[in-house]
Design goal:
Elements lengths: L1 H22 L2 H8 L2 E6 L7 E2 L5 E2 L1 H14 L5 E6 L4 H7 L4 E2 L7 H5 L3 E3 L4 E3 L1 E6 L13 E6 L3 H12 L4 E6 L2 H9 L5 E5 H8 L8 E3 L7 E3 L2 E3 L3 H20 L6 H4 L5 H6 L18 H8 L3 H8 L29
Parallel strand pairs: 1-4, 1-5, 9-10, 9-11
Antiparallel strand pairs: 2-3, 6-14, 7-13, 8-11, 8-12
Helix pairs in contact: 1-4, 3-9, 3-12
């Protein structure tokens, strides 16, 4: 009983701390310090990874840069905090980071009990399995008795248990806290199978000693809507982070790119003029606490959703992930953004 009371007290304290951090008006704090502090993965190719000089790039990194561009008109006024799966939520709750863009699944527990807010889904994913081709396995249903490498503190770990139980399969979990530890264990042969979000498997396969010796099985065993997160208690900041994502999707739908965004200011289409902040008496920026050209700045300096996707994880990248569900709603996918008006 004492343990339960202590746990409840600690949880309440963390939640209160997060609420206090958010109530200070995150936008004001960000402007005062002159940069956005963004929590990202410790190193996931295509999503968030530093090069030898410490320069970050990736799909999630570009989202952070887009938030910076919306606020400052400059995509480089952002600092990156690499976070493990275990410490990502405390870092956001405590105010160590302003926004978490770390291939994180939106769930009811995280949206409620952890005091976080999700809205814009930047990648529709699902959990999968990677195995060595030498195992001669064609389906996850053939994995009974296998040892499975998995990262702790993730929905991946929970989904793994559910899937094997539901299919009456046995497995031996090989669990690590840090992503690089999971990668090293699988690459060294300590386990037969690697499980995580399928996008992560494509990324991680590139880092293996012999990538061509590994294959990703066809089964998708879960829904993994990956989304940036902010603390509860600051609706303005929640709106800014959400609408930056929606602006990138709307820009792609409008056909607005980094290359043509200046020309598109002269479009006769009132929706495009409004989106780019050139419509008379527009308040699309001032209502957010930003300048009216914030969406223009995002597209001009970072790109639209499709450009960011293709460059980092799509056909223009080593991962070559197809758009799939992440194509626009009118192109066979389900990416859909509310209108800017």
């Amino acid at each position: 009983m004492k343990y339960k009371l202590l746990s409840a007290a600690v949880g309440a304290a963390v939640f209160a701390l997060g609420a206090s951090a958010a109530s200070a008006t995150t936008l004001g704090d960000v402007k005062a310090k002159g940069f956005v502090q963004c929590g990202v993965n410790t190193g996931l190719a295509g999503f968030a990874a530093p090069d030898a000089s410490g320069n970050w790039s990736g799909f999630d990194v570009d989202f952070c840069r887009a938030v910076s561009a919306a606020i400052f008109g400059d995509p480089n006024k952002v600092k990156f905090t690499p976070l493990s799966a275990a410490n990502r939520f405390p870092a956001l709750q405590s105010g160590e980071v302003d926004v978490l863009a770390r291939n994180t699944t939106w769930t009811i527990n995280r949206d409620t009990a952890l005091g976080l807010n999700f809205r814009f889904i930047n990648y529709y994913d699902g959990q999968g399995f990677m195995v060595r081709k030498s195992l001669n396995v064609k389906s996850a249903l053939e994995l009974s008795g296998a040892s499975v490498c998995v990262q702790s503190g993730t929905t991946t770990e929970l989904n793994l248990a559910d899937y094997f139980k539901a299919n009456n399969l046995q497995y031996n979990p090989v669990v690590f806290e840090k992503l690089d530890e999971v990668n090293a264990a699988y690459d060294s042969g300590r386990c037969d199978v690697y499980t995580t979000d399928q996008s992560g498997l494509y990324s991680l396969r590139l880092t293996l000693k012999n990538p061509d010796e590994h294959m990703i099985l066809p089964e998708i065993i879960s829904k993994e809507p990956l989304a940036p997160a902010v603390r509860q208690g600051d609706d303005q900041w929640f709106d800014i982070v959400s609408w930056v994502g929606y602006a990138m999707i709307n820009a792609e739908e409008f056909g607005i790119t980094q290359a043509n965004v200046d020309d598109m200011k002269n479009s006769p289409n009132p929706d495009i003029k409004r989106f780019l902040g050139v419509e008379a008496d527009t308040k699309i920026g001032t209502d957010l606490g930003l300048t009216n050209d914030w969406a223009y700045n995002v597209v001009k300096t970072v790109g639209n959703y499709g450009e960011v996707f293709e460059k980092n994880i799509g056909q223009g990248s080593p991962l070559k992930i197809s758009r799939g569900l992440n194509a626009l709603w009118n192109k066979g996918g389900i990416q859909y953004a509310p209108p800017v008006r």
